[in-house]
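AoPex11B, Colletotrichum melonis. Tokens?
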Amino acid sequence: MTSFTFDQFVAFASDSAGLERILRGLQALTAIFSAYPSLVALALLDADPPILEALGPLRGHLNLTRRFIRFFWFLNSFGTSYNLFTSISSSPSSPAKKSQGVGLEAWLDIIKFTLLGLYGGLESLTLPDLLGVPQIAYFGAERTRALNVEAQRFWLLALAAGVFANLTRVLKAFAYAPVPQHGHGYGTGEKPVEKKAVVEGGAEKETAAAAAALVPDEKKGDEGGEDEKLDWEAERTRLRAIVMKRREDRKRWRREVAVKVKSLGRKIFSDSLDCLIPGVILGWVNVQPGTVGIAMFITTILSSRDIWDRCGATVSQRRSS
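Tokens:
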């Protein structure tokens, strides 16, 4: 039987998103080797290997192949944005509930996926002009180049919106620590017991006062003394349960926050590095092509993690069935 890693890689390479990540990694490597040809010369032990001349056309073909894979992805982006907006619109109209359920990150996600839809739509729209077939070219070389630049602008804005949305989630993850209840049952999970005193009419008040007056003072003193006695062992046990409960809640909250912040931090770092790619094309960032290739390769690995884990879960489910 084949190994789990082999089956996971097959599932990853067969997935459209996973295949696109593989091609993106290869495209990043071609950019790195084109910027630093000495690496290829050192690996092949040749001062001027002929493969260097093929890196440029190979990078273009890889980019075009990735565009074909992403041809309809813009529909998914628009659909996600629409679903998020409709879910917010159909949320409860109460201001308190709306403030709890809808935050800044939700609106930033709507903006992000809308911009990603525009980016992907422009890329798909100009794809026929990039095939090199004059009969199906519609926009022409100059307008196609301008539309692709505008697409990069939308991508950069989408990445920025995603970074701010995830930063908001990180801040909320640290801010919303579990707050224990106060009063009776503090930290134990028990609900406070509410005392209810129902007084009906002045006659009942007078009757209660008269009955209290008939009780001997000594009896009152005995009852008061019994009420003031403390069971120290029970109190110590109760306090210990409170401390242990709060420690467990705190540890569980820290574990949940650590996992969430780690995932969000990876996305923030990946999206921030990806901003270099459209930034260079737009002329807003001045870095070397090799730096862009390295950033592209790193973000490819980081963004492939979720797809890799999803494929691993699929393989595990298939093996267990």
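The chain is about 75% helix and 0% strand.
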